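Changelog-adjacent note: as of this version, every example in the card shows the full chain rather than a window. The one below runs 368 residues end to end.
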Amino acid sequence: MRKIFAIILVLFVGACTTEQTSEDIKNQIFDYKEEIAKLEKKLNADTSNVDASKVLKIRIVEMQKQEAVHKFKVTGAAEADKLAYISPEMNGQIKSIKVQEGQYVRKGTLLITLNADVIRNNIKEIQSGLDFATVMFKKQENLWKQKVGKEIDYLQAKNTKESLEAKLQTLRSQLRMSEIRAPFDGIVDEIYGKPGELATPGRQIILFVNLKVLKISADVSERYLPYIKVNDAVEVKFPSFPNIVVNTKVSRIGNVVNPANRTFTVEIKMLNPSNKIKPNMIAEAELSDYNGNNYMLPSIIVKTDKHGEFVYVVENKNGNSFAKKTYIKTGVVIGNKTVIESGLNDGDKVVIEGYSLIKNNSKVQIVK
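Full-length structure tokens:
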């Protein structure tokens, strides 16, 4: 129909550009209207003039509920769940490096030692003073218990001993800070310092990583926020390794929508197969925003009129089969099929072939 009007419009505009009288133009418009009427009649002949007694052959499908799952993909990046840029807790010159790049070590393994000779000398000095203070304290304690010594002498001896013990504890803590140890099981990926260089707090000297557990972070459109939940099943793939497919679950959902791109963060934890996946690699996660048990029909057979969406359902009357227009409510589209949320029942015979030739109450014959 649109093509017919387009042709008439072109002809009419072309006619108006020539030198014609208004009477000639009116006559042409009348002729065009007659032509439109003839074309409309011919166009609708296949459907509007169908013989009501004619039996139309159709194919049907009987309604049964089935699992309906709709999925979508998001792109994210892999991150190591345990990754640390290690720096010392105190200033010091690097004395020795006990590991090599690429080496796997256990938690607590000594990685780097700093020059702590001054601290060790202080420990010896304090330890010597503490030994003497301890002897003096025990003597004053015995005298105090025998009611012979003065209380002030006892308290002074006790204070001296405890003060030296506290200093010794502080120095030993500083000595431990001169030794950099592995915070967890992992791989020494990079070493930035060298023996003789100065190491300072905040300056990274080792990149330490554990690749056994990865975390995928992806930005997801806020329209999916009502449908994504923690522990939802998710399938993760990696373009660099097409053969690796990991089935896991959503571990965390962000609580803030980014106003710049209207997305929220989804985190997915997974085991790293053979440690092949490296941090910052691109990952593709397939999530589900619909999972139910419903009727499904080919999207192409769902029609619309002024009352809404409908399909044709076959009904038997007096031994004959007739097509009945049945209005439905549709849901999500999955591939080339549409979920039917209401309007149909188990066993309903829905027309899937021949639907374009029939009308409401058309007499039909079901063929296989």
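Structural remarks: Residues 1-13, 46-50 have pLDDT under 50 and may be disordered.
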